[in-house]
Amino acid sequence: xxxxxxxxxxxxxxxxxxxxxxxxNLDVQAGEFISIMGPSGSGKSTLLNIIxxxxxxxxxxxxxxxxxxxxxxEKKRAEIFKTHIGYVFQAYHLIDELTVYENIETPLIYQxxxxxxxxxxxxxxxxxxxxxxxxxxxxxxxxxxxQQLVGIARALIIRPKLILADEPTGNLNSKQGEEIMQLFxxxxxxxxxxxxxxxxxxxxxxxxxxxxxxxxxxxxTT
Amino acid sequence: xWKNYFKTAFRNLFKHKLYATINIFGLAIGLSACLLIAVYIxxxxxxxxxxxxxxxxxxxxxxxxxDGTVNKVATTGTKVGPQLARTFPSIENYVRTFIxxxxxxxxxxxxEENRILYADSGFFQVFTFPFIAxxxxxxxxxxxxxxxxxxxxxxxxxxxxNLGYSAALNKIITIGDKDLKVSGICADAPQNSxxxxxxxxxxxxxxxxxxxxxxxxxxxxTYLLVHQAKDIEPLQKQITAxxxxxxxxxxxxxxxxxxxxxxxxxxxSVHLHSSLAGFEPNSSIKYVYLFxxxxxxxxxxxxxxxxxxxxxxxxxxxxxxxxxxxxxxxxKQIFFQFMGEAFLITxxxxxxxxxxxxxxxxxxxxxxxxxxPETIVLHPIxxxxxxxIMLIVSMIAGIYPALVLSGTKVLRVLKKxxxxxxxxxxxxxxxxxxxxxxxxxxxxxTVIILQQMTYMQHKDVGYTKSQLLILPIGKKMLPEFENLxxxxxxxxxxxxxxxxxxxxxxxxxxxxxxxxxxQGKQNITLNAMPxxxxxxxxxxxxxxxGRDFQQSDFALQDTSNNYANYHDAFIINETLAKKLGWxxxxxxxxxxxxxxxxxxxxxxxxFNFNSLHDPIGPMILFLGRDYxxxxxxxxxxGQTKTTLAQLEKTWKQxxxxxxFSYQFLDEAYNKLYVKEQRMATLFSIAAALAIILACLGLFxxxxxxxxxxxxxxxxxxxxxxxxxxxVFLISKNFVQLVLIAILIAxxxxxxxxxxxxxxxxxxxxxxxxxxxxASLGALLIALxxxxxxxxxxxxxxxxxxxxxx
Lengths: 222, 805
Description:
heterodimer, A: alpha/beta, four-stranded antiparallel β-sheet, 7 helices, 10 strands, 28% strand, B: seven-stranded mixed β-sheet
């Protein structure tokens, strides 16, 4: 599905060059569930952001579904991102001013999907996540677990091929965290590719493959 | 999509009530000021355009002079209209007009009316005042006819309410002693007409003096209707040439280098572009510009508030924007979302502005001296204008925040959470400086205007203005003049009485004199005043040499033998004496020829007989009871009310045919400066609005700034900073900006204020302490605004501030 080759990412601080990622090579097949682990500052989030096209590497090639992402025009890249990738955040990042329903609906608006179709899609997903009763509440009226549920629902609404999750359970208690991981597992079984960044060994174990990062390098893959 | 945007916008407004209120009300005030001013300007610009023939009508003004003196007036002699129409085929019609006051009777009812229009029979063919009843073609074709406006008909014939206006036709109305038959009812003259009237009757009803055609005795306003608008320019050339023909000059009795010329002013440019007042004081395009400028400045301040508050609020929105981008929003979509938000807020402000405007219109009318109905702001053109202004403002105010916010970097939001991306603080600082520069400028300019107003009110004008009562008198009273004067003089509380043609604050009577001495003959054009005995005494003028008029001076006016031995006595002013090369002392006894000859009996200290715009010119006083139009009485202080009651009683006994009306001279004097008064009021309001709006914005920014710096404040407090130091810390930056604004505004205000004062021959000096005071005032207000926030922040328990991080 995607392939990273010789990816380098660095920042210049004064005369020093600090490497965030060093020579990353990674192939991800459709249907995989990958966990990226590593200590703080090892480059996990940077790697995820590059995969998610929110950031660009300084060197290397990135192929996503046969397209060379880094040579694409901004608009085309945004198009691929918009239709294929769903993002889930540690801090949920829901829009405070919108209700649960409206938060989930928003990505569809940006894909210019018709109102009637949007309604059906949002209704489906609310149903599936069993949050129909909460659809008119605002994010600050929900618990952390519920907010993350909405966050995932929002990521899923566009029927993405790939879900990128940046410590999705980091702000949750262990029971809530477990529920979320179960959900990911289910989604993966349905064929959605998942890449998650996590600190927790337990959560990482849900993945079919674990990538260990250290100082910007892939230390080992298990 | 827009639904989603507007929902977000609305919920954001509710979440940040302080900012929302400042934004919306600031804009509403700005828009409302704009709307009202737009209504005023539209009216000014539309002056006289309602006339169907507007582009074909011209007003004729007269210019005459001799020996280098030039006089220009908007009035012309009776001959101008008919003679030009006879001579030049491009003239289709002419109308000579005159507006006068008089006593109008309808049976028992008697009113003093001051908008009686006398006009030639073509009046309703040239001008467009639609008829409700009667035939405009014949309405003025005889001397016994009169046309009423609908409001006049309502007043004199209330029965027309049920019966219709045609019921008033052929009814009789008496003006003076003349019975006139109502021949038509026309619509009221609109607000934007230079000719405003309540009655129209034949021009010939003015009296005997208009029945012969003459170039001189120029008291009438003449309008010409040409066949085609393009005829005006050639016609002007033809008239100029015509007036230089020897036979015409002879007909106009022009000798030597004396000349007489006529200028054509297009009807629609009279109100704003002519320096010559006709029926009403003209406005000036300068005022239109000034009003527009003020509207613009206030709007700018309000718009700047929006821009500033929106950019600082951006930090709160950056998370939302980041998320929207992650969900697939393009930069363009975010940009339009925020432009839409600006539009929404301005639209809400515009609706509130409409309500405010309707509510404020009566006060606005007072300030500008108009009579707009409250519904005028709901007319299509003002509404359209409001919409356009609203669009422009939302664009100007919204574009910067929209650009800043749509440029938010997703990664930054993801990495650092909700960081401040509030755009460049240079722009924000620049806007604050601009706002306060405008405010301080308006404050100082207002202070200068007010200073000049005070100066004019308290200036020694050469006579004592207070406690002088003016009683207008009619021709019918003249035969009884002496008896009446005595009767009033004996009324308790009356100290002294005199009479005159013009009242002394504004003398219009123009005249000419000739003096022959060793150096030869000198001709001087000047102002003159026919007065009664005790004139200088009653007014409290100072005689520099000689004496006031006395009873024996009347004996000189020998009318027997066809005026062969008619002489005058003259009192001249200092300026005239100087102009003739005389000292006050040696002026006494000199001979002056003013039609009739006479000797100078007194020299009076210069007094202002015109507006303070003009320097004091030469002036000559002569005895002329036959010309009297006003009694002037000096009354005791303290018992004005009883004296007035007494006078009214005497009046009612002696002059039953005329209502008692009076005016105080100082009020008449102040009326000369209505324009200035209005400008002063307008500027005061504008200055107040500007500073309020600017402070509103500052308040919002200070609130935000303290919120941003609460961690810093907490740390500083923990480290031992006291409250004063914290307040200083927060206020410092804002105060700096206001100080820069003052430095910019003061010189501009000084230059423009000085320039404005140049219009006055008599003017106040600009005083620096006032500048300082105005600047300090603005600074203090700004300081208070910021200080409230700073103190609030300083008093919060530092632990709380730190915990919230």
